[in-house]
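Input structure tokens:
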């Protein structure tokens, strides 16, 4: 049983590593493709990758017709609306700032989980949320403790937070009915269908930029395979074991990994202020997962 608990937590951390990297990968692809085109190709890659896994390992699972509306609702939140808001928020903000705002998801999830899923929180969970929140805010501030973020970017990113919370509620119900791999595969197919009109109508695709495939193919493949396939599958598994409130606390690790990999890959410096913020985020995460026996 303890080994299973370790697997659950490791799955959550790995998912956050890939999602932390996704902000950097997206920034790299945006140098060549617009956000809608990026998301559309990302979902196609994910659909093919997951489809191959399901076929090779014979993991196909029948989806009941009565559950299609729930899948459609979940896919509307993520990947459709969430990816739109996150991508355009990232387009107007730095990777670390964007990931820090996304990390506020755990602060809103418990409220939604309380009303819709009847989940309870311990004082330690709440204390962990609060500490992690201050860590995230600390990472958003500059040396003069001033918030320097585009208003447009903030609106897009917090819209992503709202739909992510809504997705958490619908995901919780799906994890009671289907396996994580099935959930990720089906919601990505539906999400891709949602994006088809936007791909062909709402955004102009520049053929010359698409042909510069050598400049963006690796980060785009990484988005499709690791961020949209592996991470979502691991996340659905973690979600099914921990519940909405506890699982979403892992979102606080996203800016931690984004800051670390931004330093390594694109040369962004990690200041003492960011280090303190990272330590607060991790401290809050650990505290929220502690359990104390009642006498």
């Amino acid at each position: 049983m303890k080994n299973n608990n370790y697997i659950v937590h490791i799955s959550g951390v790995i998912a956050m590593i890939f999602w932390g990297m996704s902000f950097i990968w997206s920034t790299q692809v945006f140098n060549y493709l617009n956000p809608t085109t990026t998301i559309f190709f990302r979902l196609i890659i994910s659909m093919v990758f997951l489809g191959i896994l399901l076929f090779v390992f014979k993991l196909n699972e029948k989806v009941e017709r009565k559950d299609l509306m729930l899948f459609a609702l979940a896919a509307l939140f993520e990947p459709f609306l969430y990816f739109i808001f996150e991508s355009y928020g990232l387009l107007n903000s730095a990777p670390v700032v964007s990931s820090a705002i996304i990390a506020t998801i755990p602060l809103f999830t418990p409220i939604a989980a309380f009303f819709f899923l009847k989940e309870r929180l311990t004082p330690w969970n709440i204390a962990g949320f609060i500490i992690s929140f201050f860590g995230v805010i600390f990472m958003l501030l500059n040396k003069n403790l001033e918030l320097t973020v585009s208003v447009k970017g903030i609106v897009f990113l917090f819209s992503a937070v709202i739909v992510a919370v809504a997705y958490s509620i619908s995901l919780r119900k799906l994890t009671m009915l289907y396996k994580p791999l099935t959930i990720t595969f089906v919601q990505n197919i539906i999400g891709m269908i949602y994006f088809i009109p936007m791909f062909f109508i709402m955004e102009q695709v520049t053929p010359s930029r698409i042909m510069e495939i050598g400049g963006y193919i690796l980060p785009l493949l990484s988005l499709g395979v690791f961020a949209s396939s592996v991470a979502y599958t691991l996340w659905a598994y973690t979600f099914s074991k921990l519940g909405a409130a506890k699982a979403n606390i892992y979102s606080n690790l996203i800016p931690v990994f984004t800051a670390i990999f931004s330093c390594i890959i694109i040369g962004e410096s990690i200041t003492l202020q960011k280090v303190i913020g990272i330590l607060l985020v991790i401290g809050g995460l650990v505290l929220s997962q502690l359990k104390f026996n009642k006498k």
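The two ends are 23 Å apart (CA to CA). The chain has a mean pLDDT of 84.
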